[in-house]
Write a structure and sequence with these properties.
This protein has 172 residues and is an alpha/beta fold. 20% of the residues lie in helices and 32% in strands. The strands form two sheets. It has an eight-stranded mixed sheet with strand order 5-4-3-6-1-7-10-9. A two-stranded antiparallel sheet has the order 2-8. A hairpin with a 5-residue loop joins strand 9 and strand 10. It is globular.
């Protein structure tokens, strides 16, 4: 069975982007305790929502090389990288497709609605959070309402730089 791994930064008040969808607030707080290259190498595919895909494209060149990426959207993508596929199907069907492809570790990059929907299907296996010491007051929540109950256990809690905490939770 595939492991669905949410690996994401969040503000102290649980936001993953500011009110305009931006993540510039992360720039002053780059975590040093995360080896992103090693993490990316450990995942078989990336699963993301459309808003996250658009945000990633806004940073410039596609940062994930040829890593297979599935974007959940009902709208077509314009000139996506060759490794990017669109899915406009029920999430449960996409999960079955991912598992049928024998992917072992799936990075759930975001956004909040995709994470919420995976929680509803009991398919978030690990939450790895970089907690940034900023309170945004408003923005895009990590867990949008209405939410879904889920239980996790703390697997790791450590500093990841001068002011960032790395928290890892595994599903009970």
């Amino acid at each position: 069975m595939a492991l669905f791994h949410v690996y994401i930064a969040t503000s102290l008040d649980g936001m993953i982007a500011d009110a305009e969808g931006g993540v510039g607030w992360l720039d002053a707080h780059q975590p040093s305790g995360f080896d992103f290259g090693a993490f990316l190498g450990s995942v078989d595919t990336i699963l993301m929502g459309r808003a996250t895909y658009d945000a990633v494209l806004g940073f410039g060149d596609w940062p994930y090389g040829d890593k297979p990426t599935i974007v959940m959207t009902s709208r077509p993508l314009t000139n996506p990288p060759a490794c990017v596929e669109v899915r406009n199907a029920p999430l449960a069907d996409v999960i079955a497709e991912i598992e049928g492809a024998d992917y072992q570790r799936i990075w759930v990059e975001g956004g909040g609605h995709l994470i919420r929907d995976l929680l509803a299907l009991n398919r978030v296996d690990r939450l790895e959070l970089a907690v940034i010491p900023v309170i945004l007051g408003d923005g895009v929540p990590l867990f949008p309402t209405p939410g879904h109950a889920a239980a996790f256990t703390l697997s790791a809690c450590e500093p990841a730089g001068a002011d960032v905490a790395r928290l890892v939770y595994d599903r009970v």
